[in-house]
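Q: I have two molecules that I believe assemble together. Could you output structure tokens for the complex as a whole instead of separate predictions?
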Amino acid sequence: MTASLGSALLALAFLTIGFAAVAALLGRNGDERWLLASRRAVYGTCALLTVCVVLIESAFLRDDFSFHIVQQHSSIETPTFYKLAAMWSSQEGSLLLWAWVLSIASSLALYATRNRLREIVPYATAVMAGIGAFFTGLMLFAGGVNPFAKLSPAPIDGIGLNPLLQHPSMMVHPPMLYSGYVAFTIPFAFAIGALVTRRLDASWIRATRRFALIAWALLGFGLLLGARWSYTELGWGGYWAWDPVENAALMPWLIGTAFLHSIMVQEKRGMLKVWNACLVVATFSLALLGTFLVRSGVLQSIHAFGDSTVGPYILGLIAVVVLGSTALIVSRLDDLRSPKRIDSLASREAVFVVNNLLLVALCATIFWGTFFPLISELFTGSKSSLAAPWFDRYTTPLAVLLVLFTGIGPLLAWRRVSWATAKRVFLVPAIAAAATAVVLLAFTDAAQSLWAFALFVFAGFSLVGLAQEFWRGAAARRALGGGSMPAALVAVVSRNRRRYGGYIVHAGIAVLLIGIAASSSFQTKRDVVLRPGQSAVVDGRQVTYVRPTAHVDKLAFTAGAVLRVRQGKDEFTLRPTRRFYRPTGVPGGGISSYFAGESDSEIGLKAGPGSDFWSAASPNISGVQRHARAADLGFKRCVGGGPGVPPQCRAVGALMRAALANPSLRPTALAKIEQLQLATAKQIATGYVDEAAPVTFRIIVDPLVTWMWIGGLIALAGALIGLWPARRMRRAPAGDAELEALKEAKYREIRDAELDHAAGKLSDEDYALLNAELRKEAVEILDRGNGASGNGHRGAGETERPSELV
Amino acid sequence: MDPQRKRKIRLVVALGAAVLLAVALVYTSFSASSEAKEPSQLIGAAPGKSYDMTGKVVRGSVRRNGDALRFRVVDRDGGGESMPVTYSGTVPDPFRGGREIVLTGEVEQGVFVGEPDTLVTKCPSKFTTSNDS
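A: Yes, here they are, computed for all two components at once.
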């Protein structure tokens, strides 16, 4: 019943979003009624898809196995938390998630621009709605991916969610990645709208910057969670493998990073328009490519998602997006040309260009490596793949340079920086870098890995440079407004959220890269086989396998180990275990079935600021399996009741024979057997502890790896600060919203220059020049507003305002 | 220096760097890559050459022999002759019979000897429209 309702709602959503696209195009010349209709249709689609998601989730919660999706990805025993997450572990559910998140993002974008960008919005709506229609249509027509597909008759239990996916971060990781991919649709759609209508100033960027930043933050956080899951759940101790699917998520993030920087240049200077248009198209295409790769089976990946029916369609969409956008950009080249040039290499915009080139080079390298199997097949006829060392060789130097630029960029002011000023702001960070180098050389052997050493030194430069920025900003604020230093710091950050949020992101990335460099270059990894009581020495730490542990319940057989690690005076105990899951949804498999399903590691981890001690155990369970097989054979004999039946199972045999004759007794008999099997399994578990079987331990000592996670969280916090809406400085009059946005942007620019001057990043002469230019531009904008609407009487205080904004 | 000229020099430097990077990428990728083969293509393969073998672990073929793991691998579509494999070291959690793996190694006397730490088991997770497990 609900399944049919869901199918109907999905079809309705498809029609509604299709209508939105058509209506938006009909209203392209400013016909209010069509535009309103299209906007409402997008909101309506969002509501319809929300109901669809609720229906699916409630089917999961109710264990409604008449839903194909529920039967395949959940079971009665699946914990409630993971029932909710199971939707996106399926192909069809993940497509629904895509469409749903897109409808939310589109609605938000249209609501935010309801009074703005009148010319661009119709085309942007058409693009967003067209992509929405594509994904809803895919579920309806591609075959085999309708989330409301039914099973009749409904089975009593489902197959269950793979235990490897039952990890808290799996609840959040896929939606984060998806939301990141999807949110990049918004800047893309508005860029297309701007290109079509030739409204190529920064207005589309101002309207969608926030979406780009949200997309970037979500994608980044999704990547971080995926890395964390791999580190703690997969039992191999790594967090990144240059796997195609990982790369597919990293590439749009890298280009998105470049985009977020270069749009600032367009916003402030009106330059790099072609470049920005290309970047936004590339980001969105790469996001689609990521969606495609996990569903196509084109490339060999750890994430074996298998071939599916939707791959070719998504590939078609990518082709349309890339070819269409390229043609559009080429046809608008004349409008995109900017008369302005970068004034000086020593300016923030010049550094942004360099960082853009580095990020694009990084992405191009990863792209080549990821698709190399296809390239080599084209040229040599056989698929060859590239492994991690190849990727490391090229990405490491680029990452090291990027760290340096995370520090250089914030130190430079826009437009131009005089030599004397540059010397002043670079002095302390340069000393810090030198000090870092000396300390590392004197007290550590970091110099063994040249790249890691360079990265640490550059990170020292950047972090101190960023700290200096905060310090100088707060000092400037204090000079103007008084108060204590911490209060001034809070004030200056909260009044300049974009700037300082960005700096915090930079600091986070620098810290994250320190963690990656240290843990990948100076990691100790050993596999040791130990019996209880034996010890091994790993990286100066004595590791003793104290005793085995074992536990059995209805779902899994858990074999664990108690490890004692002595590290100087410090001593701690870890309990890595390995859990063997019975396949769910397949009743009556005997005791051996514990070892026929998935198994996963519960790692023993001692995390610390200096280093992580990571351990995983692979017990030798051949003895346990032998006992399990023998026990199963015994049960069979019990039931069969042949000669030589042990006396204790006569009762069971009798019960089973009675059940065969009388079906109503069957549940009781099965329950009894189950109970006996569990008791036997418990004996076998005790046997495992007594047997003292050898266990292969993987031990990893990972220096500074904790800082990778901390750095990621710092970067996320910075992004949130940058996203937080600024306090409204003044009531926006009911005039032209776009003009207001333009004014705000110019005020912000004046304020930025003022802050840079006060913080000593701009010399007096440079500031005087720049300020005069900016104020002239601001007055022009104000005049335009007064001339156009005539309602804008402003007192003198309005233009004076910037001086009190620092 | 006249700004036009300066711009041109910058452009040439940037393009030069890009071309260098591209040539390096192309050159090293062809020499650093290892060929991906399925077991049926590796039967009788020359010893001493490194391959990436992709295939499916035969159900019930996994045996632990002290430190080493022995199992057989067939083509991904399940057809063809199977290839015996030895591998030492720990295996990823998802490893088991019936699962797809990628393993780097060499063929020695008809047995594929995997390099430690190169066994990759595919994440069994998602998006399989056909369910064969």
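A: One point stands out. Chain B has a mean pLDDT of 77.
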